[in-house]
Amino acid sequence: MGSPADTSKTSKLERYNSYLLRRVSSAKVVAASSHLLFRATILAALLLIFLFLLHYPPLLSTSHYSAAAASHSNHRSLLSSASYGGAAWERGVRASASPRRPDGLSVLVTGAAGFVGTHCSLALKRRGDGVVGLDNFNAYYDPALKRSRQALLARHGVLVLDADINDGALLAKLFEVVPFSHVLHLAAQAGVRYATRNPQSYVASNVAGLVSLFEIVAKHADPQPAIVWASSSSVYGLNTDAPFSELHRTDRPASLYAATKKAGEAIAHTYNHIYGLSITGLRFFTVYGPWGRPDMAYFSFTKSILAGKPITLFRMPDGTAVQRDFTYIDDIVKGCLGALDTAEKSTGVAGGGKKRGPAQLRVYNLGNTSPVPVAKMVSILEDLLGKKAKKSVVTLPQNGDVPFTHANVSLAATDFGYQPTTDLATGLRKFVKWYLQYYSVETGKKINGKSNTAGEEEKGMAASA
Predict the structure, then answer these.
(1) Domain count, the chain
(2) Strands 287-288 and 182-185
(3) Same domain for 22 and 124?
(4) pTM above 0.85, yes or no
C-alpha cells in the first residue's frame, strides 16, 4: 500500500487529467459548433441568393434583352428565365413545332392567344404545320378570353407559352431548340384610343418588342426564318385617296398606334437591308369575327345592345358617316397563310454575318375592299340580336380615329391569290352566333334557323382551315 502522500499526489493528478479532458471536450464542442454555424451561415446565404434570383429572373440571363423586358414591358412574363428549359420543356416545344405533312412549315406565332393569332395558329396546325405560340396574356382586355383561346389551341395540339417578346433569352432558347422555318409576328399593343392613356405600352410592344425579335432572328437563329408580321391599315393615317394602295404615302399617322406601326415598317426595312431577313408586313383592315377583341366596336356594341346600354356613333363635322373596311377573320387568315407560303428564305448568316444576297421585303394590304358606314354595321347587329340600340351620335373627336378606310388588295391578289369572300352581314351573323354561345346568352332570336343557345366554344371558331 502507498503512503498517504502518494495517494494525495494520485488524486491531484486525476483531478488535473479530468480538468484537461473537460477543456479538450469543451474545445471540441466549440469547434464543432463553430463549424456547424459556419455551414448554416453559408447555406442561409445561398438560400437568400437563390430567392433573390428567383424574384429577379433577368439577372440569370446572359442576354441584355431580359433586362429590357423588365424595364420596358408592363406585364411580367409568366414563363421567366428561371422556369423554362429542361428536357421535358424542350420535348413539348419540339412536339408542338413538328409538322405533320411533307414540307410542312414550322412556325413561331407571337401573340398566339390573341384574336388573329388564335385563328392563324389553329389553321396552320389543322393543315399539318408545326406551331409554337407565345403570349404575355396582358390585361389590355379580359385575360380570361385569351386563356380560353389558349385552351382551345391546346386541345388541337398547339403549345402557347406564357412569355413576352422582349424576353430575348427565351427567344434565343426557342431558336436553339427548334429550327423554325417561319415566324408569324402578331404580338402588339392594339387599339387607337388607348394610346392616349398608356403610350409607353405601345413603344414597349410595337417598337422594342419588334426590335427584340429581329435581333434574335438575325443573330441567333440558324437557319434564319422568314418573318411575316402584322402592320396596320392605320399607317395610312390622314390619307384621303381611296382605295388605299401600298404605294400611297404613310407619313401622316393620326395616332401613336399608327406611328409605332409605321416605325415598325421602317425597322423592318433596316433589318432586311443589314441582316438579310426575309420580311413581309401585312396591313390589316378592321378585322372582326368569332373570338374577337372586346375593345372593337362590333364586339362592344353587341354587349351594350344586349344590356340595353347606349352606344356612341361618330360622324364627321360635315355630317358624313364614318366608314370602315370591315374584314372577316377567315379572309385575314387566308392572307396570312398565303404570305407565309410565298415568303422566300432569309439570306443572312446566323450571328449577323455577311448576307448571301438581297432578301425579300414586302408589304400588303389585307382588307375586304367594301367600306361600310358604322351605322350600317349597327343596323345589322340590331336585326341579328332582335333588339334596337340606344344611339348617341357625336362628332368624331381627334383621338386617333380616321374618317374612313378602304383597301386596295390587288397586290396581294397577284402575289398569293388573296381574295376576300365574306360580306359584313354574313360575318356578323357568325360572330353573333359565337358571342351568344360563348357568353351563354339566350335572346329567343333565331340565326340560321336555330335558336341562340350556349354551345361548345369550338363552334364559334372560324372555318379558315
Answers:
(1) 2
(2) unpaired
(3) no
(4) no
